[in-house]
């Protein structure tokens, strides 16, 4: 399967620049020819890494982007003014050897509070454009402790012609001291105008902002979409139906990558799909989902294959949405366990068997309206504690 | 040490009514003679157990309270209209045998979604007032899986005369399906008027609402203060200094019980004190503390004795308070690890030794103002997962 290089006009590769101590690939570049209209969703954490600050300015400027430079092994976060100077130095080095025709985006993930090893970066950037140097896939260069590569591709026909979408992501990798940084790069060879931004952000909300491993938000979270128009097709010339089909395809790619991140959550044994239906509005539905997804009591119950509806209810009730107990209904893995606020009788053996699956679900009907939301999370296992606590003891 | 019976005019006891399967005490009564002015802080969860709904009405009415009836083993939550009928039946049964001179408050903790075993309750209530029946301490009757009794007492001299305060609490006990219900009963022999309510609620905010085991909020959480005036001293007649001393003594009792709950958090190996200082206002300080306290990444790092300031920063930055990275400073166990947004050099061996203590702390200076807050939480250990997941597998 290809990934960000699947749409026309995109190339991407990586190498080991020696930033990671284990010698794994840690520097990658994604190139768009022609330069692409870029869309970004960056962390809303008040503490923002230097590359995120830099990208925000580039994206706000609106100029076409030709290169994305990413390193793993060092997050360039909490590095003060020098962190930003280092980003500018990276971009300058890339401009020298890569001759970008457009703007350059920069991401970093890994250790925080340490300055970037600039000598390693400079020679790594030079090697990226050196034909003799050993190269590796771009997706590998952005990984930290991800246990598998997260990549996908999709194509669809609009007006009889093909447009393509590709994507790679990295999830909750743990390096000390660390945070669970999410990086995602999406490419497409359709032409998108700046006005597409709200549609892109809506897809981000319904994919990467609807997942949670442990509810923490990184200083470096970044999701970027590059649209270079190399297919010769422009979104603005499409029919309404084709536009919707494209939006849907893009969102599916993003949801797939988001779910891959959750499957690779630290110590995760299950992908939990949380649905809130019957909500008075989208925000309430999302709040209920998020409260359930982030409850350690709910997550440990799922690890124990326990359809513990009391915990789900307590979590849902604590998020500020004015639930009415007597209207609530709850399903685990398709089996109703509560309706109108009171327990239902159900086949416990059947439900337990379903709860042992790797893909489980909980569905809450608030009985208050017509809005709904879907959220994905993973369970909380011994291994979560081990991965996040034990590397020092 | 005595507890709720330490102040004059209070008696309390319990017994086993057979609600818990293991035969432990599960029904208790606290009696005030004369009846007491009652203050309550009840769960703000949208899903509220029947006894909580009942107590809210009694407390809103403002009449003096003479009896508090508590059972463990069954939470009478998610029991619909019948749940409330059952509470009224309990009160009626108590009125028959206990001849209360005031109102009756009722609490329940334990399994949710099951109706109260009323026959057991009726005979238990009768036995409570039967001189021949075997009695146990009140504090034991309210415990679920608490591993130790949480009780305290305090006295102070105001104008040369003694007033007393006593309290018991139960913490995050786990019964299936369950939630981590917090119950606390405070007694005092000073006379308090209804106008004392804001002071009481402020103390609740700074004690029980400033702790977190796992961030979940129960359908049954209840904190009640009974003030019966049996000391002959009225708060309203005190000097300003004595009033402050009394307020402080009451708050200390509440903080002590709150910290006991955290020490007994499921699988907890550490009591973590979280301080936010330099905040623009109290709410921001509290938000920052809560975000840090509820972060599983922070909690597992503490379990691993790891002063992981990246995680603390990421948690603080995600709560919506507009932190300015370059103003932030961070201390673990009294050792500065970050200032002005950048890493400090410190003696890692010294810090690791301090992090191995049972009592650890983290202090964040936001550099934005003069407000501060203190919060208490525990670490997230293998045993947390075990206790909350493993009883079924």
Radius of gyration of chain A (CA) equals: 22 Å
Rounded mean pLDDT score of chain A: 91
CATH superfamily of the largest domain in chain A: L-amino peptidase D-ALA esterase/amidase
Largest sheet of chain A: 8 strands, mixed
Number of beta-strand segments of chain A: 15
Strand content of chain A: 25-35%
**Elements of chain A, N to C (H/E):** EEHEHEHHEEEHEEHEHHHEEEHEEH
Q: Shape of chain A from CA axes?
A: globular
Question: Would you identify the regions of chain A where 5 or more consecutive residues have pLDDT less than 50?
Answer: 173-179
- What's the number of helices of chain A? 11
Could you say what the CATH topology of the largest domain in chain A is called?
L-amino peptidase D-ALA esterase/amidase
Oligomer: homodimer
* CATH architecture descriptor of the largest domain in chain A: 4-Layer Sandwich
For the record, the count of structural domains of chain A works out to: 2
Q: Using a beta-carbon cutoff below 8 angstroms, give the protein chain pair with the largest interface and the number of residues from each chain.
A: A-B, 69 and 69 residues
Question: What structural category characterises the helix and strand content of chain A?
Answer: alpha+beta
The first-level CATH class name of the largest domain in chain A: Alpha Beta
Helix content of chain A: 25-40%
